[in-house]
Amino acid sequence: MQNVWKGMALGALVGAVVGMLLDAMQGAGRIAGETATHVREEVPAVAARVRDAAHAAGAAARETAASVGASALDTAQTVGATARESARDASAHAVDAARDAGADARDRIGQRS
């Protein structure tokens, strides 16, 4: 009878460990199921937030592009106006220089005669 008691005690311990493992696996399965349900419930909200964020990013990119385009247009117009003014000034200076050179040439020719 000594071994029977040992077998019963060992069987009880092994049975308790196996029971705890089965309970843990069942609990893990239940938690996984609850998590999957929660994920399925949250997917539409997450997708909506992603869609809103993408829309906001696109709007910000369009706004930035428009701002940069307007700035580039202003800069190009300013550069064009400055170039026109510089060309006018250079042309006026060249005309004045040509007149002065002509006058000097006439004076020199007049002095030789």
Describe the 3D structure.
The chain has 113 residues and is mostly helical. It has one helix at 2-112. The longest helix is centred in the middle third of the chain and has 111 residues, at 2-112. The protein starts with a helix and ends with a helix. The model has no long low-confidence stretch (mean pLDDT 86).
Topology, element by element:
Blueprint: H1 2-112
Fraction in beta strands: under 5%
Shape: rod-shaped
Order of helices and strands: H
Biggest sheet features? none
Distance between the termini: 157 Å
DSSP strand count: 0
Number of helices: 1
Radius of gyration: 47 Å
Class from secondary-structure proportions: mainly alpha
Q: What would the keywords be for this entry?
A:
mainly alpha, single chain, 113 residues
In short:
With 113 residues, the protein is mainly α.
